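Fold these two proteins, one after the other.
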Amino acid sequence: QLVESGGGLVQPGGSLRLSCTASGVTGKFYVIGWFRQAPGKEREGVSCIATHGDSISHLDSAKGRFTISRDSANHTVYLQMNSLEPEDTGIYYCAGGTALTMRRELYPYWGQGTQVTVSL
């Protein structure tokens, strides 16, 4: 399973670090992706990273603010989010797959999500 943590309420300009820890299914995928879903909007890809370290930063609005990294020894992937904006509010999901892509249909394993709220 995949378990996200680190979400919460933060003021605009603040930072959060999300974690995604895998257990039990670590041998079934080698790519972890982060996706987010804002209220009333479709789920969109944020970034993904492979075991060997290659990554994709998909979300133009997050480039320069969000950084993905992984600790393979602990089966954990992080999403460091800086300079957060109200538009970053949503549920953030991590997902496991085998292709370095942001096409969500190619990720068969999903976590339950963690809420991120950026507000005064």
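Now the second one:
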Amino acid sequence: QVQLVESGGSAVQTGGSLSLPCAASGFTFSTYAMSWFLQAPGKERELVATITSASSTTNYADFVKGRFTISRDNAKNTLYLQMNSLKPEDTAVYFCKARRTATFSTYWGQGTQVTVSS
């Protein structure tokens, strides 16, 4: 059974930091590209960052560049998002996503809430 479980969401003040892990199971994690998305209240889900299966390439949305870092540990089947210099506009539910283009396989986690207060 495929599972992606995000955790680490919390309420923090502006300028604070959080680290979000996403634990994967039930599929071959190391063969999947991974991404973080966020969804703010009343808005559509949007891409935050992506990382290739071997961590060779990362990409970031402009609004998080220089503040967030995506990484993965294939030995631990875990994806991470390090979030620094948090702003109130970063308040959202954060989701991890697994994607393998060769098999058209896509999996989503259930999300974790991040709230940044001013």
